[in-house]
Amino acid sequence: MLNPLPVKKKIRVVLSALVMILLVISGTAAIAPEQPDERQLTDPTAPGYEDPIAMYDPWEGFNRSMYKFNYGVDKYFFLPVVRAYKFILPDVVETGIANFFKNLFEINNVANNLLQGNAEGVVNSTFRIVFNSTLGLGGIMDPATPMGFYKMDEDFGQTLGVWGAGPGPFLVLPVLGPSTVRDGIGSGVDSVGNSIWLTAVVNTAFKDTGDRDKVYYGLTGLNIINQRASVPFRYYETGSPFEYELVRFVYLKDRQIKIEER
């Protein structure tokens, strides 16, 4: 039988973090202009112009400060850990770890495809779990992709967009980076769902409570390192003197495309 206490404790931690973020957002909203300037990030005279991105960044001062804060955290904490991680582990092991976590949290794609009414996506993600968990030896290999079941990354922010929710103001989250109010809420929901799922898996595999907690937090930490190691982006190495604007544009455009594809 699963022990519900770890689930409740972990959900409280996630929700507390979300409350802190919302309090910061509320504080910065008070100094935002009542009618923020909305500028087009797409040139309306450009060939093929159809649907520009409306930049809505009323908290730009806060966002720029948070961008610099994230740069510091990344430079002095995450990147040294990532360099050690890559130095110690062979590439094949890194790939196996990345595949394991992708398979472990594929259930998130099943859930969001279901909420979006995307039957094809539900079937695709379900078969990925089945084949990678069995033929892929628990997910460390990815036989589903060569079989034609390609990974379809879905999150609750996209689901909210499919349901018609607008992105809201652009928002740079602590550590997590570029987002919007809608996608920030979506990230919180996804995090709670992943935490519940990971707890259920760990509780099923381990009987001792102490071991369960150690494995849970160990896997969580390993996943964070794995995620940062898989992203090639490095702050202030884009070659652009307007990196903040560039990152904002790329993020908003990417999210717009992903939602419009559904």
Strand content: under 5%
Estimated helix fraction: 55-70%
Main beta-sheet strand count, sense and barrel state: 2 strands, antiparallel
Give unreliable regions as ranges: 1-5, 19-45, 48-52
Say what oligomer this is.
single chain
One letter per element, helices H and strands E, the order comes to HEEHHHHHEEHHH
Shape: globular
**Largest beta sheet: what is the strand line-up?**
1-2
Q: Please state the average pLDDT score.
A: 85
Record field, number of beta strands: 4
Distance between the termini: 39 Å
Cα radius of gyration in angstroms: 20 Å
| Helix-strand category | mainly alpha
Give me the number of helical elements: 9
Structure, described:
This protein is mainly alpha-helical and 262 residues long. The chain has 9 helices and 4 strands; from the N terminus they run αββαααααββααα. The longest helix has 29 residues, at 60-88.
